[in-house]
Design goal:
Strand 3 and strand 4 (about 65-70) form a beta hairpin. The longest helix has 20 residues, at about 200-220. The protein has two domains: about 5-135, MutM-like, N-terminal (N-terminal domain of MutM-like DNA repair proteins, Alpha-Beta Barrel); about 145-265, Orthogonal Bundle (Helicase, Ruva Protein, domain 3). With about 270 residues, it is an alpha+beta fold. Strands 1, 2, 3, 4, 5, 6 and 7 form a seven-stranded mixed beta sheet that branches. The protein is built from seven helices and nine strands.
């Protein structure tokens, strides 16, 4: 799933591969996956984007955003983007952009995904996208300790640490994937209530949030996700479905896996309090 490390690394790769290229064809199997959600009629995407140039790739937190001529094209959630230098093009596709040099960008879906195409001047009246546009990301200069504390109120203090970090786009770019290592580095359990954290623990959480995401981004995403060249990211995720059967990397005690808030959580009951 696209979270902040992948959003930034994919955007960087797209600048190297498709920026300033002209779209000559848009295709895809638009009806074969009920969990791919489109804004606008995808059958009209070809008419709208054909002969238009990719003018900009915008850094976002949850989205991959392309400016193509007069239009903005967005991908989110389980949108798997892969770049192909030459044909043959893959048969499995929810959306494919073919460029004048024969290269292509193809998207398939894992679990569920969003694709949105709209005229840039019209904007996109979507709650999550508006939060993207108007929010402060955890790697932004404005994401200071006072700003972090301003997110704590009567309602959010009742939440668990996982819910506080990874729901309602309160912390842009953080979802169920990135939150695992953030909480591990902060030495906090995912179910720990925010109102039980003292000042030192809150500061540890703030610092772990920024440091972990920064490292994930600098290492070109997580190794549980793949880039547009179908290669895993360089950041080795400590807590995930791939590692929870291994001992804790700090204390060597067994790790735990549970279902919580619509997804799996992984933790060390010895290192995380």
């Amino acid at each position: 799933m696209i979270e902040l490390p992948e959003a930034l690394s994919i955007a960087a790769d797209l600048r190297k591969t498709i920026l300033h290229k002209t779209v000559i064809q848009v295709s895809g199997n638009f009806t074969g996956h009920k969990f791919t959600f489109y804004k606008g009629d995808p059958n009209q995407y070809d008419d709208l984007l054909k002969n238009q140039r990719v003018d900009q790739i915008v850094d976002r937190h949850f989205y991959i955003e392309l400016k193509i001529g007069e239009y903005t094209l967005l991908f989110r959630d389980g949108a798997n983007l892969r770049y192909y230098q030459t044909p043959p093009y893959p048969k499995k596709s929810k959306l494919m952009l073919v460029f004048e040099d024969g290269s292509s960008l193809n998207m398939t879906t894992s679990m569920y995904a969003e694709i949105a195409l709209f005229k840039t001047t019209d904007g996109y009246d979507n709650l999550y996208y508006q939060l993207e546009l108007n929010g402060v990301g955890p790697l932004d200069e404005k994401f200071t300790w006072p700003y972090f504390k301003s997110l704590l109120n009567e309602n959010t203090l009742k939440l668990s640490t996982k819910a506080f970090l990874a729901t309602d786009q309160r912390i842009l770019g953080v979802g169920n994937g990135t939150v695992q290592d953030i909480l591990f580095h902060a030495h906090l359990l995912p179910k720990r209530k925010m109102n039980t954290l003292n000042k030192e623990e809150l500061m540890n959480l703030y610092e772990a949030l920024i440091a972990t995401l920064k490292t994930m981004a600098e290492e070109h995403g997580r190794d549980t996700q793949k880039d547009i060249f179908n290669q895993p990211g360089g950041y080795h995720v400590l807590l995930s479905k791939k590692t929870y059967k291994e001992p804790c990397p700090l204390c060597q005690q067994p790790l735990h896996k549970e279902q919580y808030l619509g997804g799996s959580i992984y933790y060390c009951s010895h290192c995380q309090k």
